[in-house]
Amino acid sequence: MTENSTDTNGRTRLLRPGENKRNNDNDNDDDDVERGRPKEPWKGELVKSIVYAGLDAIVTCFSLISSISAGHLSSVDVLVLGFANLVADGISMGFGDFISSGTENDVAAKERAVTKWDVTNHITPQLMELLQKYQMLGMSTEDAATVVRIFAKYKDILVDEKMMAQKGILPPEEAYKPWKNGLVTFAAFIFFGSAPLLSFIILIPFTDSEIIKFVGACVLSGISLALLGITKAKIVGQSYVGSAMVTVLNGAIAASAAYGLGWTLRNVAG
Description:
- The chain is mainly alpha-helical.
- The chain has a domain at 44-113 and 175-269.
- The protein is built from 10 helices and 2 strands.
- The protein has helices at residues 19-35, 47-70, 75-121, 123-136, 141-151, 155-166, 178-193, 195-202, 210-236, 240-269; strands at 3-6, 12-15.
- Strands 1-2 form a two-stranded antiparallel ribbon.
- Strand 1 and strand 2 (12-15) form a beta hairpin.
- Helix 3 (75-121) runs antiparallel to helix 7 (178-193) and helix 4 crosses helix 5.
C-alpha cells in the first residue's frame, strides 16, 4: 500500500512502503537529540550586576545584624547601623563596579589599538603567530594556513580574532556605558540588602522581643538568598536546588561567624 506525500516544491508523490515510518523514526530521533541539548544560560547585560550585588548585600547586612544581635543591642541600633552600613557599602559597590567596568573596556580598547597597529605594520609575524596558535589547538598545518589566509583579507576581523585567540580579550564595546553597571549594582545592593532589616521594621507593632525580630531576619534572609540562588542557577544553567542550597549555606556560614564573633567580644569585653 502506498501513501501520498508533498515534496518541497509542492508536488505530490507516492511514498514507498515503510518510508513514512522511517521518516517518523527520524523525527523521533531528532526530538530525542533536542531534549538532550544543554539549556542556554539566561542572557542579560546587567543581570550579573544585579545577582552578585544582591547576594553580597544580603550576606553583608545579615552578618552585621547577627553580630549586633549577639551583642544584645536594641532594634534601633540594628536599624541605624544596618541602614548606614547598607548605604555606605552600596555606594562603594556601585562606584567600584563603575570603575572596574569602565577600566576593563578601556583596557580592551587600548589593547585593540596596539593589535591593530601590529597587524597594519607587521602583518607577516602576526599571521605566523595566529597560524601557530591554531596548530597548537589541533588544526592541521594546511587547515590553519587556509583559515589565516582568509582572515588576512579582512583586517578588522583579523584584529578581533587575534585579541580573542591569542590574548583572551574580548573586543571593546563602543556603546558600552559603565555607569549603568554602577547604578544597577547600587540599586540592587540597597534593594536586596534591605530584606534582613525589614523584620525589625515590620514586627515593631507586634512584638518587643529582639529574638523574634532576629528570627524574622533569618527567615527573610534565607528566602532572599534562596531566590537569588535560583536566579543565579537560571543564568548559568545549573540546578536550582543545588544553587539555592549553596547560596543559603554561604549566608548561614557568614552570619554564624559574625554572630559568634559578636557574642565572644560581648562576653570578653563586657
